[in-house]
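User: For a benchmark we're assembling, each entry needs the component sequences followed by a predicted structure for the full assembly. Here are entry 17's components. Please fill in the structure.
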Amino acid sequence: EVQLVQSGAEVKKPGESLKISCKGSGYSFTTYWIGWVRQMPGKGLEWMGVIYPGDSDTRYSPSFQGQVTISADKAISTAYMHWSTLKASDSAMYYCARLGLERRRWDPYYFDYWGQGTLVTVSS
Amino acid sequence: EIVLTQSPGTLSLSPGERATLSCRASQSVSSSFLAWYQQKPGQAPRLLFYGASSRATGIPDRFSGSGSGTDFTLTISRLEPEDFAVYYCQQYGSSLLTFGGGTKVEIK
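Assistant: Structure for entry 17:
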């Protein structure tokens, strides 16, 4: 069974750093792109970026380029999202999701499996 | 960037009724690379359709997807209590993935 299990909720202060995680199991973690999606409170879904865990090739949405860093540790089948300096506007639910295509080349695709989400709250 | 506009924003219907949700793209979505997701409160989105009309695993056949080019439709033939949720479309015809703003299907 394919599963993506995300790290727990976080409460941080503005200016702090944060790294959240997404651990995949039940499939070949290194050969599927993993994406991150933001959902601000009461709002819709926004694609942030993707990573190919096999070699850590990464693509970002222009809206999030330079704002976050996506990484992966294939040895432990885990992808990460990192913020170096959090802002209150980063408060949101963050989902990781698997792209539904097993292919090294980056091709935009749909997400077939989703993590349960990580709620990030940034408040002074 | 392909902008997806979903309408209506909210659909108020009773169980057993038919629901028709629209997703309109600002430019043609190549090869009907459009997906639909369902999101219930407190849950992650769930894939319903890809390729505009291909049902994902385990999705009941009361759900159907159709459309091409710039106009796509998700239809629920007879609403069941568990179908009341928010539905999102997503295009993957361009390298910048985008989602629509969502349609909430609520109980009337």
